[in-house]
Amino acid sequence: MGSTGSRDRFIGRTVGQYRLIEKIGSGGMGTVYKGTHVEIPGLVVAVKLLKLNLVDDGSLRQRFRDEAAIIAQLGERSPNVVQIRDYGIFEEFDAPYYMMEFLKGHSLDSLSCSGQPIPLKRLIPLACQLCNGLHVAHTQGVIHRDLKPANIFLIPDPQLGERIKILDFGIAKLVSEAAATGETVGYVGTPRYSSPEQFLGLQLNQRSDLFSLGVILYELFSNTQIHKADDESFASWYHIHTRMPPPQRVPSRDPNHPMPPEAEEIVLRCLAKDPQERPSSALDVEKHLQLALKNLIYQADQQLLSDAARLADIRDWRSAVACMEAITYDSPFYVEAQIALRTWRLEAASQQAIEQAEQRAEDEDDAAGGRAATVVAGTAIKAANPTRESSAGPQSTGPTLDTPHRPDVPAATQTTQRRARKSPQSTSTQPTRTAPWIFVAAGVAALVFGGGIMTLFAPKTPTTQREVKTDGPQKAVSPPVKQIFKQPQTGTRSGTEQSQRKSVRQSTVRKAGEAVRVKKDQKVRKQTVKADRRRLTVAKRLSTRAARRTRPGQRRTGDGPAISVSLNCYNPAIKASNYRCRNRKN
Prior knowledge:
Helices cover 49% and strands 12% of the residues. It is of the alpha+beta class. Strand 9 and strand 10 (161-166) form a beta hairpin. It is elongated, with a radius of gyration of 50 Å.
């Protein structure tokens, strides 16, 4: 509810437990104010007061009370109808009032007349909420008779995003009471959204509200009027709604999606001149709109799937993942999208890691190339100017790399000379000189390095050999295992020694394998014994249960059902391969 910024005599006064602080709006019967609780300033309500010039009219006071009763009746049954908080009489002016929930938002009028392209995914759910609130009113026997965008409010909602609230039931009537008094005959309402039977003064029912709903939906979906009237007078709209033919199609205000055929069909049915040709209820309209929304979401998600598959074909995994994540949980393609996302997210992460590694490698290559270029350039400069290195010494520094510093020559002259030396003409005329000591140093390094390599890979010759002294006769004793795998001390090895080493090695491996097998067999036997004991316990329990099921005095025929338990031969506690446990007799 927005503020009009006006101020009147009620501002600052206390109505009930609420202080009126701001005027929100005004209608034909009453004025709405924003009120805060005198003890709890954060508790805000909307207070509607009957206009002072209508206080003495008993029929209007009764209609005002009926409006509060209808709102209280419908607000408890539908979240799409404004809820009432309290009702009373402002004793100072003898004016009735009622308090409603304070709505923070804007009317549907601002949305339908905005002129901006609005996606159908947003408009159709709002239309479904409007149908839901209207259906609740019709099931309670209430016809609104003045349904228009100005009486429909949009508020933010944490779950739905936006929620519809239907307001102003000032001229609404219960069908049963109105039929008895004849108040459904005659014209009341807004001409632009009134049904043909309202203009003709005929008996009204819930299908009159459906015509008003069709006009609202047409303007909401198309952002245009059904017909352009010369003015907003009763006569202009009377001619349009009673004489001119209804529209044949509903244009879409969404440039990306045409109007769904299900939604277009139901809107055109609501605009029929004959009430019998309109839908039977607002619930029927809501079902068609939900079907249109479902098909719209199906087409949009199908397009997302095709786009994601195309991006996956060109290995643009991050864009493909973004397309798949746009598919919501209520889509029929949600499961398929989640299955594809499991693989595509890994591909996207792998692709990102590869790109980062390549970028890091490029950076390292650039840095290494820069360092190598610096070293090469420094080496070339030193080789080209050996006399400067020897004359200047390690402590002398000059302004340039190729020109020694001369304090007797001005700096400008030295700069000019350096530029001349760096030019192509000057470098081409002066041949480069290679210092002979470079070749000498390279040869020495090659000799030293080559000698080291040859020494490193040369075979070692034994210096001494072990001599075994024995006093008695020789016995064939196999050497210990440590000596077999120890580095040989002699250059040659006899055939007997090699065979002994091979036999010891084979016996060692064989013994290790036998030990492993023994341990494995012991472990398997233990597991088998435990499993057999569990099977035996289960068999006994089942046998006991089967015996208990036999009624007393009943004789069993035969031995009863037998339960066979397969046992393993490794079980030392049981010497049979199978154990049959029979049911015991009572």
